[in-house]
Amino acid sequence: MKLKALFLAATLAAGAMALPAQAADIQTRLIRFGYGLNQDSNQGRAVQVFADEVAKLSGGKMKIRAVGAAALGSDVQMQQALIGGAQEMMVGSTATLVGITPEMALWDTPFLFNSGEEADQVLDGKTGQAIMHKLEDKGLVGLVYWENGFRNLTNSQKPVKGPEDLSGLKLRVMQNNVFLETFQRLGANAVPLPFSELFTALETKTVDGQENPYNTILSSKFYEVQKYLSITNHVYSPWIVTASKKWWDGLSADERDVLLKAAAVSRDFERKDTRAEADKALAQLKADGMQVNTVSPEAVQKMRETIAPVNAQIEKSVGPDLWNAVQTQLKDIRKK
Ligand code: TK8
């Protein structure tokens, strides 16, 4: 009788173990997750999807406290908070990580990708993952890449029809030497500034212009302070979801699994949402009064030639192996 009862208790316990979130090795955790854009943006929507998925997979034990609009700091400030262990997670531009992990500069190569789908294959492939894992030596853990998108120019002065129109234009660039050099070569007066200071800088005319994807120009209301939008698609920008390594190393395998699974769900949602919204954003920017011009293929070609030396610079800082791996993968993708 006694043995039977014991057996029953053991069976019940084993059954409970099989229940997903309740019995898994998951503690109650509050996770501060910072990002730079407004809540009402492609970035904000994807953070919400991530938060919901983490709650679902952890049975409500792991709670994401999402803080947008750079209220926890600029990309660079948040990266430092993650490295120090004062903040758990964030999403931001890979471009702002170049000071920490130089290999990230590969994604800043002008005109590297022809489409978002090409970018997906490279970022989710061997090279993209190898670069992401390099963050671990620096106190960060990369989870997934999201799409920021193809960047285009806006300014308050004139339509940019070619490199000559950039001459002397005060243009905000991301805090990154590749962007600085690219726009200096194009003749602009490039000013590195964190994204969190950009709207005010445009509003007060500290800078004349900036470059970002349509979605961001809309969700950050740059159309209120910028008249001209010139379509160049000069570079594809990824975002990357990162965690503090100090914090990550203290998580159980089950907790990490929840975060990785939720991150993959957020990535798939984010890329779809971002692509679906980009065309609508452009139409909305026109409706909001922006004057839009497409830079001609000839002028784009001239831009490419002017900034070609930047590629050699990037190849030097990422090393020939990574550089060649991406070129080879892109050739393969384009053959198909
Ligand atoms: C948001 C930035 C932004 C980027 C920029 O934190 O700085 O222009 O495009 O998305 O990472």
Write the layout of secondary structure elements.
Layout: H1 2-18, H2 20-23, E1 29-35, H3 42-57, E2 62-67, H4 75-84, E3 89-93, H5 116-124, H6 126-133, E4 140-150, E5 152-155, E6 170-173, H7 177-185, E7 189-192, H8 198-203, E8 209-212, H9 214-219, E9 228-231, E10 236-244, H10 245-248, H11 253-287, E11 291-294, H12 297-318, H13 320-335
Parallel strand pairs: 1-2, 1-3, 6-7, 9-11
Antiparallel strand pairs: 3-10, 4-10, 5-8, 5-9
Helix pairs in contact: 3-11, 7-12, 12-13
Characterise the protein shown here.
With 336 residues, this protein is of the alpha/beta class. The chain has a single domain (26-335), classed as D-Maltodextrin-Binding Protein, domain 2, CATH 3.40.190.170. It is 48% helix and 18% strand. The chain contains 13 helices and 11 strands. It has helices spanning 2-18, 20-23, 42-57, 75-84, 116-124, 126-133, 177-185, 198-203, 214-219, 245-248, 253-287, 297-318, 320-335, and strands spanning 29-35, 62-67, 89-93, 140-150, 152-155, 170-173, 189-192, 209-212, 228-231, 236-244, 291-294. It has a 5-stranded mixed sheet with strand order 2-1-3-10-4. Helix 7 (177-185) links the parallel strand 6 (170-173) and strand 7 (189-192). The N and C termini lie far apart (69 Å). Mean pLDDT is 95; it is low at 14-18.
Kindly state the percentage of residues in helix. 40-55%
The fraction of residues assigned to DSSP E strands is 15-25%
DSSP, total strands:
11
Model regions low in confidence, pLDDT < 50 over at least 5 residues: 14-18
H/I helix tally: 13
Spatial strand order of the main sheet: 2-1-3-10-4
* SSE pattern: HHEHEHEHHEEEHEHEHEEHHEHH
Shape: globular
Largest sheet: 5 strands, mixed
CATH class: Alpha Beta
Any idea what the radius of gyration is? 22 Å
Say which molecules are bound, naming each kind only once: D-xylonic acid
Give the CATH topology: D-Maltodextrin-Binding Protein, domain 2
Per CATH, the architecture is: 3-Layer(aba) Sandwich
State the separation between the terminal residues, measured CA to CA.
69 Å
Count structural domains. 1
Give the structural class.
alpha/beta
Provide the residue-averaged pLDDT. 95
Instruction: Specify the CATH homologous superfamily.
Output: Bacterial extracellular solute-binding protein, family 7
